[in-house]
Amino acid sequence: MKIMYSTGATARGGRNGRVKSENGILDLQVRMPKALGGANDEYANPEMLFAAGYAACFDSALNRVIKLSKIATGETSVTASVSLGQIENGAFGLAVALHANIPQVSIEEAQQLIEKAHQVCPYSNATRGNIAITLTVSNNEAVMQA
């Protein structure tokens, strides 16, 4: 792989600590969510950070696919929902649901675009075959599972 960009972050205290990017822009307290035994949901957590990164990255991949396809759309949005659950042998795993809204195209075109973006997105390529990913699309009118 030809490296185009690298960055890093350091966590201290795990799920009940702090995470800070190497440039200091991201500097957050992280806490266990209430559903996992934490006191409340007023802090960031690893799943939230993963969802934010995946949504932003996937929307960029989607917009690249749209641009290369020379299709006119309105402003897109991507929502990533990340779930944490128990898998075999007491270990833990993730599942992701990605929903893209692609206005001004047919639902069929929207489905084709999200599937192409799923092949381009670095997060999708990193997780492919490792976690369950569900894709859904809308065009401000209807929602369809891809």
From TrEMBL:
Pfam families: OsmC. It comes from the Bacteria. GO terms for biological process: response to oxidative stress. InterPro entries: KH_dom-like_a/b, OHR, OsmC/Ohr_fam, OsmC/Ohrsf. Belongs to the OsmC/Ohr family. NCBIfam families: organ_hyd_perox. This is Organic hydroperoxide resistance protein.
